[in-house]
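Researcher: Quick test of sequence recovery. Tokens follow.
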């Protein structure tokens, strides 16, 4: 087992992990027979494979209800805090995150759950905070989703309580608009010095401010040309410095890597166009608020957006041979992206080729 001090994102400049393996379909809304089922046995196999390959983290999707379609994409999901505890017990060096929807988890209960996972993993647990976006999931749980601004106000109270529970050695009270606790004292404390690593997405101005204030890593999707990413990242990091924080940048992507670029593009077309779960893709596009402008786009752009939804839940596509994939990861890293949360159409089938062909190229380039 590695030195605990090295079980962190500091091991590599360019950090890599698997994203979404806890859900049926993973990031791929496809009918292809090799699609990811998301069973515990598959998750365990993928986690061990990623750990042995030296990947840095596993990031689960916090999903409570699927996207419909023939496969009910992501409808089968493993809850992320219990999932992380199981993953951490079965691995040695890789980090495992829990993805927590704030309104669904009482902060004191969640703080205890996360410390348990953190103790199991000897400091390898991380927290991905989601303040809420999918109203259907909240309706299913009988929880009312706040208006956009209120979500982040609730999220801030939640983080304040969880952080205090992790760090306070004496009982504390907290009285807010969303939570009230009295005489709270939690033992044991996290294995890490202060708290587990926190990741939070930031797309709206309010979401970015929340992530800048609270997160160690900010999760941002790639929506612009690569040449424009550096400016976007610089502005996000400057906002975090305003809160006295030096944060890293996370993004999500999906990878199709084959011996030739043509083979990769053909497989991408096969599983994400020809075999796309059209019902799930339509739901994905609609729930991500693209429908209003989607129908007015040119046909080729609509095709690309639907393929991106089917291929990786809307994540950034990286398609090509090993040189293409390694080169694009390096370019994105040079633009300011520190960590890549990766989807594959099938994690255990496709990770070995990435491990054997792409990782050595990244090592030669000096980023891992």
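Model:
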């Amino acid at each position: 087992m590695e030195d605990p001090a090295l079980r962190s994102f500091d091991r590599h400049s360019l950090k890599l992990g698997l994203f979404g393996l806890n859900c049926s379909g993973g990031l791929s809304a496809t009918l292809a027979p090799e699609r990811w089922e998301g069973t515990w046995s598959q998750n365990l196999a993928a986690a061990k494979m990623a750990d042995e390959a030296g990947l840095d983290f596993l990031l689960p999707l916090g999903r409570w209800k699927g996207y419909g379609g023939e496969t009910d994409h992501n409808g089968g999901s493993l809850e992320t805090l219990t999932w992380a505890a199981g993953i951490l017990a079965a691995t040695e060096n890789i980090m495992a995150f829990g993805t927590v929807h704030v309104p669904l988890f009482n902060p004191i209960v969640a703080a205890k759950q996360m410390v348990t996972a953190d103790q199991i993993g000897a400091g390898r647990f991380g927290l991905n905070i989601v303040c809420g976006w999918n109203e259907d999931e909240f309706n299913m749980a009988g929880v009312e989703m706040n208006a956009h601004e209120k979500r982040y106000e609730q999220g801030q109270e939640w983080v304040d309580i969880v952080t205090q529970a992790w760090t306070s050695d004496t009982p504390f009270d907290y009285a807010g608009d969303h939570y009230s606790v009295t005489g709270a004292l939690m033992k044991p404390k996290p294995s890490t010095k202060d708290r587990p690593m926190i990741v939070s997405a930031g797309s709206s101005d309010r979401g970015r401010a929340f992530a800048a204030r609270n997160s160690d890593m900010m999760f941002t999707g790639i929506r612009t040309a690569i040449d424009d990413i550096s400016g976007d990242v610089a502005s996000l990091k400057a906002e975090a410095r305003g809160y006295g924080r030096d944060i890293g940048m996370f993004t999500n992507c999906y990878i199709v890597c084959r011996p030739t670029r043509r083979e990769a593009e053909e497989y991408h077309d096969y599983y994400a166009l020809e075999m796309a779960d059209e019902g799930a893709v339509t739901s994905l596009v609609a729930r991500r608020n693209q429908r209003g402008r989607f129908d007015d786009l040119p046909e080729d752009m609509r095709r690309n957006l639907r393929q991106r939804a089917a291929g990786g839940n809307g994540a950034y596509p990286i398609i090509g041979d090993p040189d293409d994939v390694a080169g694009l990861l390096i370019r994105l890293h040079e633009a300011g992206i520190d960590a890549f949360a990766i989807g594959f159409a099938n994690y255990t089938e496709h990770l070995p080729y990435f491990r054997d062909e792409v990782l050595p190229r990244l090592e030669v380039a000096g980023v891992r």
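The domain at 4-364 is CATH 3.20.20.30 (TIM Barrel).
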